[in-house]
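Sequence, please.
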């Protein structure tokens, strides 16, 4: 992998070319990981960033309080990221304690294992209905018709989003996560549409509350702001921006990552027919297989960008305060210093410690829901379609052109 010239005259090591990370992810990461623990690259916003590649460093830094998520700790001119208005940007992915602790506590009760388990039967029914719709055709793009449909239905039902308002959500999400260079205004337009959507939805729920998570969060916001002090600075209070941003994050994260977790897992099993057959015969093994599926081909290549509060040293490299640090879960998961035969998929090895759902205080809030959805989706699919197979040559499958996430563009299958 070649170095490229420094961007915008930035001092420091030359930038590593990230094109191979899009074209052939795991071999490119192996080359970087072997060459060193930290590399200077062009980040997801095009500006210089530090990529951390080795498992022990990535895991440790996920929980290091010296690395902040709040963008206010970025050095001037160092980071741009998404251009989100405060009503969408005041979310858990841009918060550190104590605000992170306060806001997370308010929503965590919706995602406890016990509450999620009560959703298993409704999720199973949705999965069966989606499979009913495509079964007569004998073939489908499973990403568009199944993996891309189930999570949005589940998370919208949880939040209380009406059916009629769900149709545009995937297009908005794709515009943010994988911007199209041919449509430079698409991401900005998606942000504007999302802001209008959430503002109107909250107003409707405020006027007509229902038995859903968003109505519950609105009640928390309004009841505890009723004393005139609900500005988001006191214990247990949400500001209006925090409320809107929380709804935005739950819907976006609950949809985006789970879509590709399901689709990537289906592809992994199609690539490993013995494991697929074993899980078809005994679906109870899916719970144990989840961790290996998430490690082997997880939906997130990188953790959320972080900013050192002070100069820190990683693997002998000093990273100045305020510069952007990217933690590569995709590289950590293939690190032979931690995982035996990491490029092999083997659900029987019981490999623990994957970072697909994060680590530390920012561990994925919706992890129990993601686990349950994937197990339910795969169990239904494998049972209903015993002849499931790829409908195109394996080499024709394409991955989304981004270093941020690991997701297929489509998944044509037949049965």
């Amino acid at each position: 992998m070649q170095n490229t010239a420094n961007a915008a005259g930035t001092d420091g090591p030359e930038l590593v070319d990230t094109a191979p990370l899009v074209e052939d992810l795991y071999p490119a990461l192996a080359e970087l990981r072997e060459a060193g623990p930290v590399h200077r690259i062009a980040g997801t916003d095009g500006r210089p960033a530090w990529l951390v590649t080795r498992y022990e460093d990535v895991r440790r830094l996920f929980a290091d309080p010296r690395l902040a998520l709040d963008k206010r700790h970025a050095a001037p001119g160092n980071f741009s990221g998404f251009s989100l208005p405060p009503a969408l940007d005041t979310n858990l992915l841009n918060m550190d304690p104590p605000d992170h602790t306060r806001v997370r506590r308010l929503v965590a009760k919706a995602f406890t294992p016990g509450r999620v388990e009560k959703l298993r039967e409704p999720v199973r029914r949705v999965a069966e209905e989606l499979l009913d719709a495509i079964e007569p055709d004998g073939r489908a793009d499973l990403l568009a018709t199944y993996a891309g449909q189930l999570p949005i239905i589940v998370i919208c039902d949880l939040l209380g989003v009406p059916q009629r308002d769900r149709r545009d959500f995937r297009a908005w999400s794709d515009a943010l996560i994988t911007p199209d260079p041919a449509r430079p205004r698409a991401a900005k337009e998606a942000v504007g549409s999302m802001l209008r959507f959430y503002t109107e939805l909250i107003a409707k729920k405020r006027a007509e509350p229902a038995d859903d998570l968003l109505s519950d969060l609105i009640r928390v916001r309004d009841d505890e702001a009723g004393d005139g002090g609900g500005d988001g600075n006191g214990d247990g209070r949400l500001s209006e921006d925090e409320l809107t941003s929380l709804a935005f994050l739950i819907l976006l994260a609950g949809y985006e990552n789970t879509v590709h977790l399901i689709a990537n897992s289906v592809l992994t099993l199609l690539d490993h027919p013995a494991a697929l057959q074993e899980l078809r015969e005994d679906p109870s093994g899916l719970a144990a297989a989840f961790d290996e599926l998430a490690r082997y081909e997880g939906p997130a290549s990188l953790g959320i960008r972080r900013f050192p509060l002070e100069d820190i040293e990683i693997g002998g490299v000093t990273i100045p305060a305020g510069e952007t640090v990217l933690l590569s879960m995709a590289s950590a998961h293939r690190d032979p210093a931690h995982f035996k035969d990491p490029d092999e998929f083997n659900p029987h090895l019981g490999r623990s410690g994957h970072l697909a759902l994060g680590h530390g205080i920012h561990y994925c809030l919706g992890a129990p829901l993601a686990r349950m959805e994937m197990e339910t989706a795969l169990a239904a699919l494998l049972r209903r379609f015993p002849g499931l197979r790829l409908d195109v040559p394996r080499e024709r499958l394409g991955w989304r052109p981004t270093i941020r996430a690991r997701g297929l563009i489509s998944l044509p299958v037949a049965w």
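Residues 3-10, 226-232 have pLDDT under 50 and may be disordered.
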